[in-house]
Amino acid sequence: MEEPFLLRDELLVPSQVTWHTNPLTVELKRVSRLAAPMATVTIAQYLLPVISVMVAGHNGELQLSGVALANSFTNVTGFSIMCGLVGALETLCGQAYGAKQYEKIGTYAYSAIASNIPICFLISILWLYIEKILISLGQDPEISRIAGSYAFWLIPALFGQAIVIPLSRFLLTQGLVIPLLFTAVTTLLFHVLVCWTLVFLFGLGCNGPAMATSVSFWFYAVILSCYVRFSSSCEKTRGFVSRDFVSSIKQFFQYGIPSAAMICLEWWLFEILILCSGLLPNPKLETSVLSICLTIETLHYVISAGVAAAVSTRVSNNLGAGNPQVARVSVLGGLCLWIVESAFFSILLFTCRNIIGYAFSNSKEVLDYVADLTPLLCLSFILDGFTAVLNGVARGSGWQHIGAWNNTVSYYLVGAPVGIYLAFSRELNGKGLWCGVVVGSTVQATILAIVTASINWKKQAEKARKRIVSTENRLA
């Protein structure tokens, strides 16, 4: 049975402090032991749809365009919402675990799943009309038809994700990351096999990868559910308290809606960026280069998201346990990891700036453009890693609403206008658009840093206690 990390937190403040027993050193080890597996988990989850698009691309350029368009549309209107809403569980389950309110953890997770399902039905209705929506927006009818068919077969995947993400957070907030790592990697390998079988063995064309994605998400949901149901590690936490169900749903939406806004506002900005690139003087070049840069940026961001998930877990656990100073040290530990991670990948990217484009294109024009944008990408690596960690603090502490307002101001009132101005008025084209992203990220990072530095950790611990026990008191 895997031992959750919180059980040994009393060792964080020893009587005789040495380098090995220094609170920051000890907490840095704990955050790292969570972050490394979670980074792998987020990469595996990210690669599921990417592999599907790659396999679909072997059916032809037209099919690749339709699948890529469907993937973009479904991410914006569906998957991003599911990923965002579940941020509420990082607050609720994490703090409940720290407070040893074990019976509430399962109730929160089941409430999240029950809340997600009706939302999935609403999103599914929208996906049924993707072909007509895209045609009305001026897209090519044949590409729109392929996109609509692909999105239709992705609908089961949406319902599978509605189960997978809450169960993942259920385990994460207890520090049970090894089962998450095993199930994520197993699902990825299973997905590759199913994708190949449906496309190349059964000849299902570009719909095959979508079917494979749906099958894989449900495979993922089943093995996670089996672990939660039968593992002794979840014996205390998998229970369900029916009298708390309605109030748990209310709390889920209270924190889930601003959490979804945090995620969606950021995802949507990059989709707007790609759309704007299509309006520039050389749209084919600009769109290709910005898509490459976005892919590189996303690959790095999923690693930062693993660190953020670890920090969120440590902060929420310690606030719930009434250890405000340890929660503060967790933030410092996460920032130490950010410095190492962002420095390593930024230096690596800058060193490889003249060759990284070959992974996507052989065009000299594209390669030179990507190399020219690399310094801005390195800045994005640094800023996004920093904001990812502090957004993890926001989710762990329960102030997602501040993060949502921050993203609105940073990206849509500052970053996007600056990017559009530089791209079109100053004729910096794609470079101008990405400058807007960097400016927006800088504002976002500055606001988050000020808010985090101003936190009264003792009050946050008191709020966490009230948040977790309030429902119990009302129903007593």
Automatic annotation (TrEMBL):
It is found in: Membrane. Its main location: membrane. CDD domains: MATE_eukaryotic. It holds the Pfam family MatE. GO terms for biological process: xenobiotic detoxification by transmembrane export across the plasma membrane. One of its GO terms (cellular component) is membrane. InterPro entries: MATE_euk (IPR045069), MATE_fam (IPR002528). It is a multi-pass membrane protein. GO terms for molecular function: antiporter activity; xenobiotic transmembrane transporter activity. The chain crosses the membrane at residues 34-56, 76-97, 109-130, 150-168, 180-204, 210-231, 252-269, 289-311, 332-361, 373-393, 405-424, 436-457. Keywords: Membrane, Transmembrane, Transmembrane helix, Transport. Belongs to the multi antimicrobial extrusion (MATE) (TC 2.A.66.1) family. This is Protein DETOXIFICATION. It comes from Arabidopsis thaliana. The lineage of its organism: Eukaryota, Viridiplantae, Streptophyta, Embryophyta, Tracheophyta.
